[in-house]
Specification:
- This protein is an alpha+beta fold.
- The chain has two domains: about 220 residues, Creatine Amidinohydrolase (Alpha-Beta Complex), CATH 3.90.230; about 60 residues, Arc Repressor Mutant, subunit A (Orthogonal Bundle).
- The protein has six helices and 15 strands.
- The protein has a five-stranded antiparallel beta sheet with strand order 7-6-8-14-15. A four-stranded antiparallel beta sheet has the order 2-12-10-11. A three-stranded antiparallel beta sheet has the order 1-3-4.
- A hairpin with a 2-residue loop joins strand 3 and strand 4.
- The longest helix is centred in the N-terminal third of the chain and has 23 residues.
- The two termini are about 20 Å apart.
- The mean pLDDT is about 95.
Length: about 290
């Protein structure tokens, strides 16, 4: 990896780590969900970096892909388990990191995903398989009485690409990708009091361009023009002020110009915690860019 690319990854990681910590401090009973999301996203721009994806802020059984809508009126309440998942990029080099804030009485659940991440990171080095990393995650979560979310995984990162090989499972598997020096990926254990599997909810606030084909409908063309500078990175519905955007987004999903990310949740009434770091595999271990 070129020194300039490595430094961009590390710079993005330093920014992400600092802002994630700030954002977590803003999550408290009575605080505005929308205010936290917008303030964290604004801080990334203030630091001269870009958002790799809209800030994910997922509550309780919701594990991933929730973010604020433009008129979101939610307030944090006692008992919430809030997952704050932040993506920052510097010239396309991405840092993906997450933490969990417990506003109730679930410290062991939070510890389960945290310790799973720490033990997974400690195992990373060339020659280790992704399945071995998953086994370390699974052991730490199950030993505390919870279930790892088996159908969510860590993922590779590339320039302006948030999901690519290798896949890093949250459960032990046979074999899998063998880690090599220079690989860049995120490890993100999820611990759940529920079934350990997530499904899609109706709520959809995050989209991603997957085709550059011209759109036929004028309102759809306007959306495509507005998101062009995202270079294929995900965006939030609330970033589009046009009142016709909802119709345009539906059209663009239907015509396979956009992919939509529904909120992913375990069973109703369960609680999910998450922690995440971005790593670069080195000759004898790894660099954690987001620590």
């Amino acid at each position: 990896m070129e020194d300039s690319i490595l430094e961009n990854y590390r710079h993005a990681g330093r920014i992400a780590a600092a802002i994630l910590k700030e954002g977590a401090q803003g999550i408290r009973v009575g605080a505005s969900y929308l205010d936290v999301v917008e303030s964290v996203e604004a801080r990334v721009i203030e630091e001269g970096a870009g958002l790799a994806f809209p800030l994910n802020l997922s509550l309780n059984e919701d594990a991933a892909h929730d973010t604020a809508s433009a008129a979101d009126d939610r307030l944090f309440v006692k008992g919430d388990v809030a997952k704050l998942d932040l993506g920052v990029h510097v010239d396309g080099c991405i840092a993906d990191t997450a933490t969990t804030v417990d506003l109730g009485t679930s410290p062991l659940l939070v510890e389960a995903s945290y310790q799973a991440l720490e033990h997974a990171v400690a195992a990373v080095r060339p020659g280790v398989s992704a399945g071995e990393i998953g086994a370390a995650i699974q052991f730490e979560i199950e030993s505390r009485g919870y279930r790892p979310v088996s159908n969510l995984t860590g993922h590779g990162l590339d320039r302006f690409v948030i999901h690519c090989p290798p896949t890093i499972p949250n459960v032990g598997t046979t074999g899998g990708v063998v880690l090599e020096e220079g690989m860049v990926f995120a490890i993100e254990p999820f611990a759940s009091t529920g079934s350990g599997r997530v499904g899609e909810k109706a709520r959809k606030e995050i989209y991603q361009q997957i085709s550059t084909r011209p759109a036929r409908v004028p309102s759809a063309r306007a959306v495509m023009e507005r998101i062009r500078d995202r270079r294929g990175l995900p965006f939030a519905r609330r970033w589009l002020p046009d009142k016709k955007a909802d119709i345009a987004l539906s059209n663009l999903v239907r015509t396979n110009h956009l992919h939509v990310y529904p909120v992913l949740a375990d069973v109703a009434g369960s609680l999910v915690s998450q922690h995440e770091h971005t790593l670069i595999v080195t000759a004898d271990g790894c660099i954690v860019t987001t620590r």
